[in-house]
Amino acid sequence: MVRKGHKRKNNHVVIVTSDATDSKVRQFRVRPWILQIVILVQCAIIGALIGFFLYEKDAWAGEFRQTKEESEEENDKIAQLEQEKAQLEGQVAGLSGEIEELNERIGILSETVNQKTQSETELSEQLQKQTMPTEFPLTGKTSMEETAEENGNPICIFTASNGSMVVAAAGGSVMVVSEDPEYGNNVWVDHGNGYATIYRCPGEVKVRQGETVTQGATLFVVTGDDSRLGYQMTRDGVYISPMEVLEISG
Fold first, then answer.
1. CATH number reported for the structural domain that contains residue 240 in this entry
2. What distance in Å separates the CA atoms of residue 37 and residue 248, rounded to the nearest whole number?
3. How many other β-carbons are positioned within 10 Å of the β-carbon of residue 195?
4. How many domains does the chain have?
5. Structural domain contains residue 105
6. Cα separation, 185 vs 180, whole angstroms
7. Is residue 167 part of a domain?
8. Distance, C-alpha 146 to centroid of its chain
């Protein structure tokens, strides 16, 4: 008979020692398969760590690339916005210049309008003054005889020297040129502002009915010995004393 030999078992001895003088040496017997498992586990852990780090590296690299691309896009947007800002600033500067020019024009126009308004006001006052019967109705040497009433209406009677002229006390339109039974002739002038003046005189008439006259225009030329002027005035159709309006200087 062949004698079967015993299978030899291999064990690994792990020795644990210390640098201390009184330390003891310890030995552990470890089965080979356990050591192989430990080594495999360690290799797996190391492999997993290496894979993890490689994965993280790729992930970080991808994230870095993405961040870089986003940063470049943001930089492009910022550059575009800066360009648009510069264009807008240029437009604003142009508009500011136009606004200043418009303000200057407005100032000039405003001054022109003010001057025109002042001129119109002065012209209106001048025209109003010219149509207000305040001027004396005779030229040359004159004396006033009396202020009386004719048919219950006030009248001023003046005596003028030969060659004097009866003039319009204000500008207006000649309403009436007719004969007067007491004075010879009469002329009515409507001044267009509620006032009308009546001139009664035997002198030579120099105007016609419907004619427009200015202040100081000649209505009669006084001739001969009868040089009287009967002067009357109405306001809104009512007779008033001419002395209320007449301005006498000197």
1. 2.70.70.10
2. 143
3. 21
4. 1
5. no
6. 5
7. yes
8. 63
